[in-house]
Amino acid sequence: MSQWPDSLWRATALPADPNPALDGDLTCDVTVIGAGFTGLRAALKLAEAGASVAVLEAGDVGYGASGRTGGQVNPMLPFNGPEEVCKRVGAGYFERLTAASLGSADALFALLRRYQIDCQARQNGWLRVDHALKAAKVARAAAESWNRHGATIQMVEGEDLARLTGTRAYRTGTLIPQGGAVQPLSLARGLARVAKGAGARVFGGSPVTTLRQDPSGWLAQTPGGAVRSSWVILATNGHTDGLWSGLRNSLLPLIPIQIATDPLDPDQIGAILPRGHTISDTRRVIMYARREPDDRIVFGGLGRVGWDGRITGHDWLIRDVARIFPALAGVKWPFRWGGRIALTDDRLPHLHEPAKGLLAGLGYNGRGVAMAHVMGEALANRALGVPPENLPFPTTQIRRIPFRNLQLMGARTAVWWMRMRDRSEVG
C-alpha cells in the first residue's frame, strides 16, 4: 500500500525480528492467515494451549492495518447506545459482547504488562468531544445508557474540557478512563515475538494463493510451500481478498490517514493534551489525535484512495488541525501515511464459520486495536473446542453488503458530503 515509508510508526518502531517466507510443506493444528493483531493474538492463545500454529502473512508482521492504525485503544463499540446492539445480537450475546467490549482496553493493557511488550503503552483515558449540540445530546444519552451496563463514562465540559484537551473548539465531551494509546507497529512486532516464544511459527512474504478442503483437512498454498491443518483462521480484515468466496464483499474498506510532527518545542505543543489523553470527535469525517511521550503530535482522520492508488487527504488534516489547535498552525508534518480498515453493514465485528474447521473474524469499524485482540482470543477458543454459543460474538452467515459496488464508487463524493453535513451542524 502506498505511503507506508512515511509512517511515524515505521520510523520509530522496535526492530522487527526476521520472519522468513515459508519454504516447503508442513503440517500443524491451526493455520492463521494474517499477521496483524487478530491473527497474532489467536496464534499466541493457541500456542500457549499446546496447539501447533503456523501464521502466514503476505507482507510482514503488522504490514496491514495493525501497523498503520492511529494506535488509540478505544474500549467501546461504535454505537450510540446499547439498545441497538442488543436488538442486533440478542440478549445472551449482548451481555457477553458488552462485557468484552467495555473490558477490551483493560484486557489489552494487562496483556502488555504480562508479556512486557514494549510499545509505549499508556492508559490515560480517551476523550470523545462533541462537534455540535445535537451530537452532545446523543453522546450524553448514550453515556447514561452504557453506564447502566457497566461503563464508567464521565461528562466533561467548559473549562475542564479546555484544560484536558488544550482546545476551545469543543464545548462538551465524554471521558472514557480505560482508553489509551500504543505504538501499534511495536505492539504487532512484540506480539509476534511472544507468540513465537510460545511455539507459533510466523512466515512473512507468504501470501496464501489457494485454500481448499479435502478429507484430511485444509491445505493453504503459498508460493514457497503449503500448510496442512485441521483448522484455518482468516484474520485479514481490511485486506480480505477473494480467498474465500463472498468474504470480501461483506466488508467496506475505509481509509484512515494520519500526519505527525517531529518533537515540538514547549511553546508549540503548549497545553495540548497535557495529561496524555487521546482524543477524537463525533463528526462523520472524524478527527483523532494524541500527544507522544517525546512531544510529537499525531493527528488523524479519514482519507481517500485516488484512481492512481495513492492515498489522499493529508492536506485537509493540516487545515483541520490548525483550526482545532491554533498553536500548531504552520508546524511541519514530515510523516504522512494511511491504511485500510473494514466496516461492516451492522457496525459489529463479524465472526464466521462458513465451513467445518474454517473461521473468520473481521470488521472492527474503527475499534480494532482493542477489539481485534478480543476477536483473536475468541477465534482461538473456538479452534480449541469452545462451543460457538459461549463466545462473545455470535457466529453469523457471510452477507454481501447491499449495493456495495455503488457505495465504493461513491466513496469520494460521500466523504465530501459528510464534511459538508459536519460543517452545517456546528454552531
Polypeptide structure, described:
- The model has no long low-confidence stretch (mean pLDDT 93).
- The protein has 13 helices and 22 strands.
- It is 32% helix and 23% strand.
Overview in brief:
With 427 residues, this protein is α+β, with helices and mostly antiparallel strands.
Helix content: 25-40%
Shape: globular
Number of helices: 13
Average pLDDT:
93
State the distance separating the first and last CA atoms.
38 Å
- Overall structural class, as computed from helix and strand content, comes to alpha+beta
**Backbone CA Rg:** 21 Å
> Ranges with pLDDT <50 over ≥5 residues?
none
- Give the tally of β-strands: 22
Strand content: 15-25%
How can the largest sheet be summarized?
A: 8 strands, mixed
